[in-house]
Amino acid sequence: MLKRYFAFVFALVIFNFQFSFAQVYINEGSNKNYTAIADEYGDHPDWIEIYNPSSDTLQLLNYSLSDEINNPTKWVFPNTQLLPGEYKLIFCSGRDKKPVSAFVDVLNAVNYNPVVGWNNHALASPMLWDGVSSLLINICSYSSAGYTTNSVFNQTSMPYNATVFNFQDGSPNICQTLYGTKSNLRPNIRINNVTIGTGTAQNSPYDYPAPYGNWYWASKTQMVIPATELLAAGLTPGLIDSIAFDVVATDPNTVYDYVNYSMKLVGSNEVLSEFEPLDYDRRLHTNFKISGVGDTIYLFSPNQQLQSSLFVNVNQPDNSIGCFPDTSSNIATFSIATIEATNNSSQAYYSYLLPPVISVPSGIYNNVFSVSLSNPNGVNSEIRYTLNGDNPDSNSSLYTGLPIQIFYSNVLKARVFSNSELPSITATSSYLFGISHTTPVLSVITDNDNLYGNTGIFTNWQFDWQKDAYAEYFDTTNQLIFSQRAAMQVDGGAGGSRSHPQHSFRLEFDNSVLGDGSINYPLIPNRSSRSKYSTIYIRNGSNYYLTLPYKDATHVQSMGGETNNYYSAWTPISVYVNGQYFGMYELREKWDAEYFEEIENADADSLDLLSLSYWNGSVLRAVEGSVDSFFVDYNAFKSLNTSNAQ
Question: Which candidate in 181, 265, 315, 494 could, as Cys together with 614 as Cys, close a disulfide (CB 3.0–4.6 Å)?
Answer without folding.
Answer: 494
